[in-house]
Amino acid sequence: MTRLNQIELAVAGTMLAASPWVIYAAPHEATMGLVYKIFFYHFPSAWIYLLGAIVAGVCSAVFLFGGNRNMDSWALAAAEMTVLFGAMTLVTGPLWARKAWGVFWVWDARLTSSLIVWMVFVAYLILRRFGGPGSDKLGAGMALFGLASVPFIFVSVNVWRTLHPQTSVIPTLPVSMGRPLWFCFTAMFLLFLALLSLRARLERQRGRIEELYLAEDEA
Fold it and tell me: Are 141 and 105 in contact (CB under 8 A)?
């Protein structure tokens, strides 16, 4: 673990521990009251979920078309982060929806596409774990599919009628709500960076050990 990773984890942990008090200071929403405050965890996890899918897809493309094995390690690490933060998104979202909309789930464009992309990356990890030779390149193709779906998730609320608010809502939040939102986003983003770097390093080390075992067997 590098010094930078230690700093990122320490800052992220401190900010996440302080986040309940920061969120508590935010005013209640006019129609939902206290319940809406799960948004301060749901929104950051959703954005980092999509960021993870973008990183996994871009790194997979570099690996697939350029043969850079190091990028494959970053792609695998990013895919795991996508599944982690995607799970957070898919748990906090329905909890909020139950109070805001009266149901845990509706099959609108954003929810359905978010679930599909999350399942794509779950399948990617299963493939990488049990797929055997060639699973890295096949998995890279799956990650590219996930990457291509990210813009669809983002614009879906602007193109189709959904229960989700449009993307223009976030910039219009008052400072009293925007401050805790970006505080939580920063904390989760630092956590994402630290975990991504550590997991990629671990995967590279695993690859080197595997190469040594293969070289010993051949010898």
Answer: no
